[in-house]
């Protein structure tokens, strides 16, 4: 049912909390809810670099639009690659320019995520998360994908 700005917004469906309404370009109205628990839920951050990054190349720049926390040692995070490094390689994770953790990749392709001091890392709205490639650059490491498991 099309709504005009003067129309009354329909009541929330029975048993649904935190209902929001959205209107598409054809004036179709639909309801959606925040994740269970309101405004909390998973918030995955994905970074990837196709090919071989240069030394300390930025592989992720993200300005947070929501407050996000990452568990100690980025628990639940994962990485993939297409070519293992010739020597152990370490990515640096930063918050507003300061190191808060690392992602180490072994010559066998095993990813080890670590936060500074093994502590939870939290970002506020507007904070900047960056990930820098290893320096010096590895000659074989290629096509790395990183997914950081966060919550909001």
What can you tell me about this protein's structure?
The chain has 152 residues and is mainly β. It folds into two domains: 1-33, no CATH class; 42-151, Jelly Rolls (Sandwich). 0% of the residues lie in helices and 43% in strands. It contains no helices and twelve strands. Strands 3, 5, 6, 10 and 12 form a five-stranded antiparallel β-sheet that branches. A five-stranded antiparallel β-sheet has the order 4-11-7-8-9, with no helix packed on it. 20% of the residues are buried.
Q: How many β-strand stretches? A: 12
- Shape by Cα distribution: globular
Strand % is: 35-45%
Report how far the terminal alpha carbons are from each other.
Answer: 33 Å
CATH topology of the largest domain: Jelly Rolls
CATH architecture of the largest domain: Sandwich
Order of helices and strands: EEEEEEEEEEEE
> Cα-atom Rg, whole angstroms?
20 Å
**What is the chains' assembly state?**
single chain
Task: Report the total helices.
Answer: 0
What about the largest sheet?
5 strands, antiparallel
Task: Estimate the mean pLDDT confidence.
Answer: 85
What is the number of domains? Answer: 2
CATH class of the largest domain: Mainly Beta
Structural class: mainly beta
* Poorly predicted parts: 1-6
Approximately how much helix is present in the residues? under 10%
